[in-house]
Amino acid sequence: CMVRHYKFNVVLKNTTRLCSTKPIVTVNGRYPGPTLVAREDDTILVKVVNHVKYNLSIHWHGIRQIRTGWADGPAYITQCPIQPGQNYVYNFTLTGQRGTLWYHAHILWLRATVHGAIVILPKRDVPYPFPKPHKEEIVVLGEWWKSDVEAVINEALKSGLAPNASDAHTINGHPGPVPGCPSKGYMLPVTPGKMYMLRIINAALNEELFFKIAGHQLTVVEVDATYVKPFKIDTIVIAPGQTTNVLVTTHRGGGKYMVAASTFMDAPIAVDNVTATATLHYSGSLTSAATTLTSTPPKNATSVATNFISSLRSLNSEQYPANVPLKIDHSLLFTVGLGVNPCPTCVNGSRVVASINNVTFVMPKISLLQAHFFNISGVFTSDFPGNPPAPFNYTSTQVTNFATKQGTRLYRLAYNDTVQLVLQDTGMITPENHPLHLHGFNFFEVGRGLGNFNPKEDPKKFNLVDPVERNTIGVPSGGWTAIRFRADNPGVWFMHCHLEVHTTWGLKMAFVVDNGKGPNESLLPPPSDFPKC
Ligand code: C2O
């Protein structure tokens, strides 16, 4: 295995989109940032140098960080931020992982522009479990604000109201032509009669997206860096945090075809952001040739999303078995949703909050992982409730009594404990999709449904054979999903909604996993350049 060194200079860079220019925070002046390429079991060292005025930290989304939680990246969860002028070397090994993942800033809303792809190739001489593509391409989906993104969130926090929606979506950094700004979008050159693999990443802050290409079917082969049983579909849905690899076979002919990423949001109150477009450009076709267009599903096209999601199955082959935990040590039910708390200084005297089991998470002043490792008391408590305060009809709108409690409460697991966690959406203000991301683990999605989870009937229908394995799961609007994982990674592991606005409002918590007794079951000590608060 190799050791690979990268240097990330985090710098401001003047960037023009939607016909206006502003300085954005970037990695090495690039948006999206540079791609990390490595092989399974390689070690990666990334020296991050902070040249901007903001505190900074970078998360390697989906990398398990086995025993190296100090390199995970969420600010105040596993590390203190890298302060302006400081640097930190993230040092981790890609144990048993291959596929498409990504990195992003994990503090404030800096991840809007600080993100990029991680490509982990299989070990040398290990083929993909599908035919080798002619070429591989990275497709990063994002979101663009004309105004300063940090100002957008600060304004929202002050007012207690929802932040402004973004002004456009992007494909590899470009919105494509939009009303009032006829710019060129991203162009992907292809050769006729070849198979391509697209590594698609949703790096948007607040939007689940549909993705499709005019006149071409997509064969889905991998999600969140785990192989799935291949299937053909024309539209995929991808939530912030998720990654999806698809194969696309080009026609014998030529032409230009629209690639589109559009909003999926089936909440009653839905923002319809601008669709991003790019072009699949066959070699030899004239630039002036007409582009074959495609329409995108309406933003509330739940059936299109369900059609994709219900087709996902682990490959579960001899080489890549699905090791679903069958005996469960902790059976948990977490409600996820929005609420309203009093706020004397806010517009309306109240603010929108979000919670898990009615706990709105309060960020600590030093990192939870340090508090755990060095036994510093008074930073967190280990009493996160395993069930909601009282069972009720979660999915109906509650007009009263939806204030939440605040706390920095963690749920404690012993090394190797197994967990079944039902994530139940609530409709206190309105039911909404919530893409929940768990750091430090992959999990299996064993079931999902609409309405209230039924603990007697629903488990009978669980798929314990070949459920999809992921690190970020969309909890359906007004429904639930059940996941299972094994706590075989000691440390403190954040779990949160990957819609940045919901995380900001408090839809987050963390698991603390104690060390095991074996020689390789303990968290390593922090590196010597570990940032201080
Ligand atoms: Cu991709 Cu905690 O995030």
UniProtKB/TrEMBL annotation:
Cofactor: Cu cation
Presence of keyword Cell cycle: no
Molecular-function annotations in GO: copper ion binding; hydroquinone:oxygen oxidoreductase activity
One GO cellular component term: apoplast
Domain Plastocyanin-like: 13-124, 138-285, 384-516
Pfam families per record: Cu-oxidase (PF00394), Cu-oxidase_2 (PF07731), Cu-oxidase_3 (PF07732)
Spans through the membrane: none
Record key words, sorted: Apoplast, Copper, Glycoprotein, Lignin degradation, Metal-binding, Oxidoreductase, Repeat, Secreted, Signal
Annotated EC: 1.10.3.2
Cofactor descriptive note: Binds 4 Cu cations per monomer.
Substrates-to-products reaction catalysed: 4 hydroquinone + O2 = 4 benzosemiquinone + 2 H2O
Compartment annotation: Secreted, Extracellular space, Apoplast
Main enzyme class: oxidoreductase
InterPro entries: Cu-oxidase-like_N (IPR011707), Cu-oxidase_2nd (IPR001117), Cu-oxidase_C (IPR011706), Cu-oxidase_fam (IPR045087), Cu_oxidase_CS (IPR033138), Cu_oxidase_Cu_BS (IPR002355), Cupredoxin (IPR008972), CuRO_1_LCC (IPR034288)
SUPFAM superfamilies from the UniProt entry: Cupredoxins
GO BP terms: lignin catabolic process
Family statement drawn from the similarity comment of this UniProt entry: Belongs to the multicopper oxidase family.
Function of the molecule: Lignin degradation and detoxification of lignin-derived products.
This protein's name: Laccase
Species name: Gossypium darwinii (Darwin's cotton)
